[in-house]
Specification:
Length: about 270
């Protein structure tokens, strides 16, 4: 795994030789530094120094997402030392959120079928089949829409699938149902993609909840829509009245005929 501090220092002190590029796995750019190293102007050193400053000031999540993408992938099965915290928790205490947090009273569900679907989703997750895992978790959620752990699992999987909006929706639902382990939301590796989104700052500031439209805004939207519908509904009548008025001005309709036709349209 690449270390941000090491990469930044290599860039500052040995950037002219492209050592930091080789360290970060950017071999092509490393050789490019070596080519410019022999020029009279210290271009290679300047670029390396600037890149080093950028690396050292870079957010940890962004650095890992760019240079340690495997940090956000499930590692090989069986390697317990590097296994994701998410999978360890699912194996050791799959129902932990329910034990620690209160939840609404639930209707009886087919527990065996739900557990089978959850296990299938976790297995697909381990095999990098995030879309397949999402489908299995959604089937399990259909049996019990108030299952906090499934909502959290879906949030993690959607995050790894780079679908931040859906991940935030399921985090919001989990918190609504009683999930309070906010530290886990802020530190869980699988949610790294969500945390670097601008929407997450607003989500966190709002108590790890999505902002809902206020009743005033909903009422204003409803009134605007009603007014638009009203204009659209009456527009054909207005057009016909304008045509009748044009015929009267041209002398093709008498005043009595105009009034008669107008009353028919209005009625």
């Amino acid at each position: 795994m690449k270390d941000k501090t090491t990469a930044g220092l290599l860039a500052i002190f040995l950037g002219g030789l492209g050592i930091h590029r080789f360290y970060l796995g950017q071999t092509g750019l490393g050789f490019l530094h070596l080519i410019f190293f022999w020029l009279p102007l210290p271009i290679s050193w300047i670029v390396g120094f600037i890149h080093g400053i950028m690396i050292l000031t870079m957010d940890d999540d962004k650095f890992n997402l760019q240079f340690n993408p495997d940090r956000y992938k499930v590692v090989k099965r069986g390697n317990r030392r590097e296994d994701r915290e998410y999978n360890r928790n699912e194996r050791r205490r799959p129902q932990e959120p329910q034990r620690r947090n209160s939840a609404p009273v639930r209707q009886p569900v087919n527990q065996d079928k739900q557990q089978m679907l959850k296990k299938s989703g976790i297995d697909k997750y381990k095999d990098y089949d995030y879309q397949g895992a999402i489908e299995e978790f959604k089937k399990a959620l259909a049996l019990d829409p108030n299952d906090i752990s499934i909502h959290f699992n879906l949030a993690c999987t959607y995050s790894l699938n780079e679908e931040a909006d859906k991940a935030l929706e399921h985090l919001d639902r989990a918190v609504t149902l009683g999930f309070t382990d906010f530290k886990r939301i802020k530190e869980h590796d699988a949610l790294a993609f969500v945390r670097i989104q601008d929407a997450f700052d607003e989500f966190e500031a709002n108590g790890f909840r999505l902002k809902q439209a206020t009743p005033q805004k909903q009422a204003a939207h409803s009134q605007t829509q009603t007014a638009q519908d009203s204009v659209e509904d009456h527009s054909p009548i207005l057009e016909q009245l304008q045509k009748l008025n044009e015929l009267k001005l041209k002398g093709l309709l008498t005043e009595e005929e105009f009034v008669t036709q107008k009353n028919k349209l209005m009625n």
